[in-house]
Amino acid sequence: MVEELESVRSRITILEHLLICHFCKQDEFIPYCSFSNVEDPGIGVLSIGYSAVCVTCGCVTEFGDPSGPSEDGADYIWAFSQTVL
Known about the structure:
Elements: E1 10-14, E2 17-18, E3 29-37, E4 46-54, E5 60-63, E6 68-69, E7 76-77, E8 80-84
Antiparallel strand pairs: 1-2, 1-8, 3-4, 4-5, 6-7
């Protein structure tokens, strides 16, 4: 599991589910991190999101990071796994 995705050609798994392109059904992406201002205008609170561009057709898939503490609070569960190709 990884804390943050690298912007390189890879396969991405979110909570052990492989990310598949909705358009061409391929599984190779280049992920990008995006930042947006939650409050406009506001105090500068940023929200972090992810976009993955399919290397076959160029379709973009957007997703968030579901990482967080386990239900009992004893462990932290990293949601992302990345296999660099």
